[in-house]
């Protein structure tokens, strides 16, 4: 059924049905209702605004609290980062100090596992860090170079207190071992094993013992000779010739003592690396002539045929320490004369090998020679061949040791050929300086 529409006319007709009073009442009532509704809405609005305000204040407070917490956390993180950096710096500084120590350090944790070892320890033990780091200390006994250390430090699977124990991982190295306990008695944190190189101290101790032994033995004879000569000089019935002879014997004995002491001191300096060389350009011919003069005189007294063969041309100047190279030449030539019997032959020869850029020295004798089975030890300190010792008990056995050191320190070589009862020939070379080699080369053109 179609909806009926109210027309404007009908509305007007309805309005005319109300009296003005009724219309006024109706409007007032409607206005009152509207005002109440508006007031209610205002109250709701205010209540809502208050709630929003409270919530906003609460949110703002939370935001502020969160910002404060954020700032506090940032400050804390900054402090932690700064502390971390400081700790890293301290750690790096400590590691740097430990790595720079000349003493070796091995640090074990509470379970006796290798936690750290410094470069000095790695160098002493000739091992790689990765080969032992993190491993049980007792298991390192399987490594040959560490067996002695483990045996020294570990007893019944417990690290024991070691104070200055000795351990030699190789022939040329002796270490002093000390263990340090880390932590309190009830709280084991681990151990530190300290390795201190005492090789030089042991060498000096050995040298001291050898020095005293040789000095006591070798000085006894010349001292006894001096005492005997001086006691005879007290005799009243001595002729002037007798007195001169006794004084000469005293002088010879005194010279032997001085030479022995010098040899012992030179060996000590060589062993300790204090035998300093001052190389200067020198005329080696003049040095050689001066060095062998006393030996030539001695050969004459013993009726030994001494031959000196020098190059005809002028030799280039050699960079040498005159005092020390003179001692080397003297040792070789005097030995040749000393161990050659009267009527024998001694030859000293110098020649310039231009091709090799070196000067070759030859000292040849027809003396007692060196037994074949002892020739490997001829340059060893304190060694004297048995056939020589049978001839005479005096002699330090230091001359050839010193001579070899001198020649090799001049970048030269020394070797020999010998046959017992037939004689010995020593050879040694000294290099010609580079500028002298060049000058010799130019002379060919």
Description:
The chain is an alpha+beta fold and 445 residues long. The chain has 4 domains: 10-96; 101-197, Beta-Lactamase, CATH 3.30.450.20; 202-271, Signal transduction histidine kinase, dimerisation/phosphotransfer (DHp) domain (Helix Hairpins, Orthogonal Bundle); 280-442, 2-Layer Sandwich (Heat Shock Protein 90), CATH 3.30.565. The chain is built from 12 helices and 14 strands. It has helices spanning 8-17, 20-100, 119-125, 129-132, 144-153, 199-233, 240-271, 284-301, 322-338, 386-391, 399-409, 434-442, and strands spanning 104-108, 114-117, 154-155, 158-159, 165-170, 173-183, 188-197, 280-282, 305-309, 318-320, 345-353, 358-365, 414-419, 423-431. It is rod-shaped.
Question: What is the H-and-E element order?
Answer: HHEEHHHEEEEEHHEHEEHEEHHEEH
How many helices? The count is 12
**Which runs of at least 5 residues are low in confidence (pLDDT < 50)?**
none
Biggest sheet architecture? 5 strands, antiparallel
Basic shape: rod-shaped
How many structural units, i.e. domains? Answer: 4
Strand content: 15-25%
CATH class of the largest domain: Alpha Beta
* Share of helix, binned: 40-55%
| Gyration radius, rounded | 52 Å
Number of distinct beta strands: 14
Strand order of the largest sheet: 2-1-7-6-5
Determine the mean pLDDT.
85
User: In angstroms, what separates the terminal alpha carbons?
Assistant: 145 Å
- What is the CATH superfamily of the largest domain? Histidine kinase-like ATPase, C-terminal domain
**According to CATH, what is the topology of the largest domain?**
Heat Shock Protein 90
Overall CATH architecture of the largest domain: 2-Layer Sandwich
Structural class, from helix and strand content?
alpha+beta
